[in-house]
Design brief:
The complex is a heterodimer. Chain A is of the alpha+beta class. Chain A has four helices and five strands, in the order βααββαββα. A five-stranded antiparallel beta sheet of chain A has the order 1-2-3-5-4, covered by helices on one side. In chain A, a hairpin with a 5-residue loop joins strand 4 and strand 5. In chain A, helix 1 packs antiparallel against helix 2 and helix 2 runs antiparallel to helix 3. Helices cover about 40% and strands about 30% of the residues of chain B. Chain B contains four helices and six strands; from the N terminus they run E-E-H-E-E-H-E-H-E-H. Chain B is globular. In chain B, about 40% of the residues are buried. The chains are: A alpha+beta, B alpha/beta. At the A-B interface, helix 2 and helix 3 of A face strand 4, helix 2 and helix 3 of B.
Chain lengths: ~150, ~110
């Protein structure tokens, strides 16, 4: 069974925590994947929203960020779209190299890629789709439950 | 989300309750900088009651650590659960900070 929903989030950093809570709260199957949602999905969605607000929308309070969420038994997809001109995700440097380690910024996209199964941008670079697959942990949960 | 600051054995201890993310990281930064400007040099930030940290929160910790070191001080982190430790390991920031399991361990020898 698949469910979809859309959030329109004001371009306000203070709205991020509530938006993430709303998305995670709507995922009915997430209780079986608590560890991945507690950290991976929450952090990645926070990063995507912050990037959209700060860099995509240029911190413009009149703009908005749209979040399209699809949840089914095998995965959760969240597409985060801003109203900006887009950027080149391949131009982002590796924040774990010795020369970048002390930099205060530059870890957002890296964390998204590390924490999720898939992160893909549209050609324009103003919309990122976050994918977290659920099968593996669901199988483990079922095995544990039936043991 | 809230932060509490207490002085313990001459060390400034900051407890982070809730999330440390882009929407509130400046508040933590300002609290610590205020104490640094006031002459404090030894700091522990405790995450025992923290849900999650995003890259902005990590960035603030890096920035604070640098500023404290420049003043001859030290910042230690404590109380990170397994999830939060994962974030530090992924970003290799576990190599940058002294991280202890408990606040009490962090206070030892600081």
């Amino acid at each position: 069974m698949e469910s979809t929903f859309v959030l329109e989030v004001p371009n306000d950093l203070r709205a991020i925590e509530r938006a993430v809570d709303l998305v995670v709260g709507r995922c009915q199957t997430c209780e079986h994947h608590a560890s991945r949602f507690r950290l991976n999905f929450r952090v990645a969605l926070t990063e995507a929203l912050a990037n959209a607000m700060l860099y995509g929308n240029g911190a413009d309070p009149h703009k908005r960020v749209r979040v399209d969420v699809t949840v089914n038994e095998s995965e959760v997809l969240a597409r985060v779209t801003d109203q900006g001109a887009g950027f080149d995700p391949d131009a982002v440097e590796d924040p774990t190299t010795p020369e970048n380690l002390m930099r205060p910024g530059g870890r957002g996209l890296f964390l998204m890629r590390q924490l999720l199964d898939e992160v893909r941008y549209n050609d324009r670079g103003n919309s990122v789709t976050l994918v977290l697959r659920l099968e593996e942990e669901a199988a483990s949960f079922d095995e544990a439950a039936s043991a | 989300m809230s932060f509490s600051v207490v002085k313990q054995d001459g060390v400034t201890v900051v407890d982070v309750e809730g999330q440390l993310i882009v929407g509130n990281r400046q508040e933590l930064k300002q609290k610590v900088l205020d104490e640094l400007e006031g002459g404090d040099r030894r700091f522990v930030i405790d995450f025992q009651q923290t849900g999650y940290i995003d890259s902005s929160g990590l960035g603030v910790l890096v920035s604070l650590s640098k500023k404290i070191r420049e003043q001859g001080g030290e910042l230690r982190l404590s109380g990170l659960n397994e999830d939060l430790r994962t974030l530090f390991e992924l970003t290799k920031l576990d190599t940058l900070f002294r991280i202890t399991h408990t606040k009490e361990e962090a206070l030892q020898g600081l």
